[in-house]
UniProtKB/TrEMBL annotation:
Keyword terms of this UniProt record: Membrane, Transmembrane, Transmembrane helix
Sugar phosphate transporter domain boundaries: 18-298
Membrane topology of this protein: Multi-pass membrane protein
Designated name of the protein: Solute carrier family 35 member D2
Signal sequence, renumbered to the chain: none
């Protein structure tokens, strides 16, 4: 990350950083539960079409806001593709693998495996943003304890969630990087991400038969399903906005850590929501250990950041007082 970018991040008030983090945590929590309801409780067959619905909602909301001059971002031209690459690819990868893993895994196991994102984000921050390296936390054993006793082990689901971890980490880091690109800004990043990728995703959905399954889904006549589907589409936009906002005011790693803290609530609610969690004491206790590890990691991350800032500030304010040969005092 450039010195200017670090300085801008440091200048944001603590209240804005906290509010953006809470907004992201709340949005992420709500969309996870809503998506799980649509894909598992109602058994909606197409996670890809649900993602398309979220992209279209993002485009409609931001286009309407731009037309009404509520928000401003650069008009489309050929330079946009170079400015925003590779975010659209990461965006669709994150969207599709996230929805697929939500469908395949119980919420508690989804939550536990999402913690790999923290390690991946730390690595990418070092290589892409040139951020200072942070000491890794030993949560791999906790992950293994919980995963190894998962009675509903699903190879496809585990593959999707690990790919989702990689896409999320890369997306967080590159979002932070692209927010400093002239002409894009928060809203431009959101809008052009969705615009560039929505048509290829729609074509892929039609070719694979995914779109046909979604259109012929029998629960379209149920008001409760329609409400949940529309909530998911709208929350997709809200989530993406909250991620960009949190990344703007905080670091990419902080955004990832906030997601890990949110997962504590999701994991335990997931035992009761979705109906696909197979209880065992070994898995339940492993889940608790893993969640505790996530909170401890999060505490040390924020605590070290605060300590670092305090030390930095103290060094900058340090005044050396010396006495010269005439008895007068001078500062340096």
């Amino acid at each position: 990350m450039s010195a200017q970018a670090r300085q801008e991040t440091a200048e944001h008030s603590g209240l804005l950083k906290l509010l953006s983090a809470v907004f992201y945590a709340g949005s992420s929590f709500l969309i996870t539960v809503v998506n799980k309801t649509v894909l598992t409780s109602f058994r909606f067959p197409s996670y890809m079409c649900l993602g398309i619905g979220q992209m279209i909602t993002t485009l409609v909301v931001l286009y309407a806001a731009k037309r009404s001059k509520t928000v401003q971002f650069q008009d489309f031209d050929r330079s946009i593709l170079l400015k925003i690459f590779p975010l659209p690819l990461l965006y669709v990868g994150n969207h599709i693998t996230g929805l697929a893993s939500t469908k395949k895994l119980s919420l508690p196991m989804f939550t536990v495996l999402r913690k790999f994102t923290i390690l991946m984000t730390m690595i990418l921050e070092v290589y892409i943003l040139s951020a200072a390296s942070k000491p890794a936390t030993a949560f791999s054993l906790h992950l293994f304890l919980s995963c190894s006793s998962d009675l509903a082990f699903d190879v496809e689901g585990y593959t999707f969630i690990l790919l989702n971890d990689a896409f999320t980490a890369a997306s967080s880091v590159y979002t932070k990087k692209k927010l400093g690109t002239e002409g894009l800004g928060k809203y431009g990043v959101l809008f052009y991400n969705a615009l560039i990728i929505v048509i290829p995703t729609l074509v892929a959905s039609a070719l694979t038969g995914d779109l046909h399954e979604a259109v012929t889904f029998e629960d379209w006549v149920k008001a409760t399903f329609i409400i949940c589907f529309l909530m998911s589409c709208f929350m997709g936009f809200v989530l993406m906005y909250s991620i960009v906002l949190c990344s703007y005011y905080n670091s990419a790693l902080t955004t990832t850590v906030v997601g890990a803290i949110k997962n504590v609530a999701v994991a335990y609610i997931g035992i009761f929501v979705g109906g696909d969690y197979l209880f065992s004491w070994t898995n339940f206790l492993g889940l608790g250990i893993c969640m505790s590890g996530g909170l401890v990691y999060s505490y040390h991350t924020f605590n070290n950041k605060s300590s670092g800032n305090s030390t930095e500030g103290a060094q900058e304010l340090k005044i050396h007082i010396t006495e010269d040969s005439t008895g007068r005092y001078s500062t340096s």
